[in-house]
Amino acid sequence: MKVLVDTPIWSLALRRGKALSREEQILVSELSELINEGQVVLLGPIRQEILSGVPTHGQFTALKEKLRAFEDLPLTQADYERAAEFYNTCRKAGIQGSQIDFLICSASTGNKIPIFSSDKDFLHYKKHLPVFLYRPRKR
Q1: What kind and span of H or E run contains 33?
Q2: Which of 11-15, 35-39, 93-97, 117-121 has the lowest average pLDDT?
Q3: What per-residue confidence (pLDDT) applies to 139?
Q4: Hey, which of 5, 8, 52, 79 would disulfide with 118, CB 3.0 to 4.6 Å?
Q5: What are 61-101's pLDDT values in tens digits?
């Protein structure tokens, strides 16, 4: 099963010198297992978020090369239209979210691929949208 890994999970895995909580360690370990199993896919906007703000050109280049190991899920016109529909649905329900979050929800739904994220906003979206959320396997 392919899994769409969101930026917050990548950010946890890429932290250097910062202690992780037990919960965060579980998420990073799960990402590592998914990578080893060849199950990770990205979206272009997630790739962009991961690469944005990398402090040095050398670090940017190294990370860019490592991320090239993961395929980008192609986005279609239908994905963008569904993302706008999802935004409107959530907004009517009083739920705010970023355009990228709704694009992630749309790509997940359209491709029947779960989203692996620590962003709690996805739990709110799930109440109104047919998104699939990935939960780490029990340790």
Answers
A1: helix 22-36
A2: 11-15
A3: 59
A4: 8
A5: 999 999 999 999 999 999 999 999 999 999 999 999 999 99
Q: Which two tokens mark 130?
A: 């047919």
- Tokens found for residue 66: 């490592």
Place of tokens 């272009």: 44
Domain boundaries, the chain: 3-67, 77-112+119-126
Place of tokens 């990073």: 28
Please name the amino acid found at residue 20.
L
Cβ-in-10-Å burial (0-12, 13-18, 19+) of 90 comes to: buried
